[in-house]
Write a structure and sequence with these properties.
Blueprint lengths: L1 H35 L3 H17 L5 E4 L10 E5 L6 H6 L5 E6 L8 H6 L4 E3 L4 H14 L4 E4 L17 H7 L4 E8 L1 H4 L13 E5 L5 H4 L4 H14 L2 E3 L5 E3 L7
Parallel strand pairs: 1-7, 2-5, 2-6, 3-4, 3-5
Antiparallel strand pairs: 6-7, 8-9
């Protein structure tokens, strides 16, 4: 029985990946045309539509909790945990009008990299100090008109738990007057972690949007205190799912 389930899961995953790449390629072509004519509103809708469609092709939906914590007339520094290749589309289902900061190599991925370039993606080379500083400066400039999203762990988790936060978002924070918006993603590690091919659809996918942390509160803190404050908020709602469907909140010892 387990072999049959594994086989059907592999077939489903392969078909889903194929359809996702085909759909992404089509959306990239449409995005290029919209960018040429500088038609921004349909382009932003395209980001939202692409992101939701990626989950539809996996027969999944991102359940958004706390959307009332986002003011549409404000920009933020959005700080979110990193667990899966599907983190970016998950965030785009919430706020399609934003700029992501991430690894430089993602821009080089065929088709997907082209799509990222249409989403104000800011590549950062952590091995080159000069380039990294340029990326931070670029982020500060974009923050004048866009929400800036960053994965402070720097890479996807390998065990489902939230890793150590790096200080990159703090450097951006000091160059702006924006509030920090913590977001916790749940279920994406279980859906598709870094080290597994198959897509597992057993667990729900959700994005928990926490109340923004006011800029005026954070400027009273040191860099280390800001990092710890934001990470502690993200941890409060982070779920570690068990095979039986139950979960433990990583920020506490209580099982649900």
């Amino acid at each position: 029985m387990n072999r049959i389930r594994s086989f059907t899961t592999m077939i489903f995953s392969s078909c889903s990946y194929f359809l996702q790449w085909i759909f992404t390629a089509i959306m990239v072509l449409i995005g290029v045309l919209l960018a040429i004519v500088k038609w921004e509103m349909p382009l932003r809708f395209g980001h939202w539509f692409w992101a939701n469609s990626i989950f539809w092709l996996m027969v999944k939906k991102v359940h958004i909790i706390g959307k009332e914590n986002i003011r549409p007339d404000k920009n933020y520094i959005l700080v979110v945990n990193h667990s899966s290749i599907y983190d970016i589309p998950a965030i785009l289902t919430i706020i399609p009008r934003l700029a992501f900061i991430g690894k430089e190599y993602l821009i080089k991925i065929p088709i997907f990299g082209s799509l990222l370039s249409r989403t104000d993606y800011i590549p950062i080379d952590r091995n080159d100090y000069v380039k990294a500083r340029q990326s931070i400066s670029q982020s500060i400039e974009k923050a004048k008109s866009l929400t800036i999203a960053i994965f402070p762990e720097g890479t996807r988790t390998l065990d489902g738990r939230i890793g150590i936060f790096k200080k990159g978002f703090v450097h951006i924070f000091w160059g702006t007057s924006l509030d920090v918006l913590p977001v916790t993603l749940n279920g994406l590690y279980e859906l598709k972690p870094k080290t597994r091919f198959n897509i597992e659809r057993k667990w729900p996918v959700e994005a928990v949007i926490h109340p923004p942390i006011p800029n005026e509160d954070l400027i009273k803190m040191t860099d280390a205190e800001i990092v710890e404050k934001v990470r502690s908020v993200v941890l409060t709602s982070h779920k570690i799912y068990q095979p039986n469907g139950r979960y433990t909140l990583e920020g506490s010892k209580n099982a649900e």
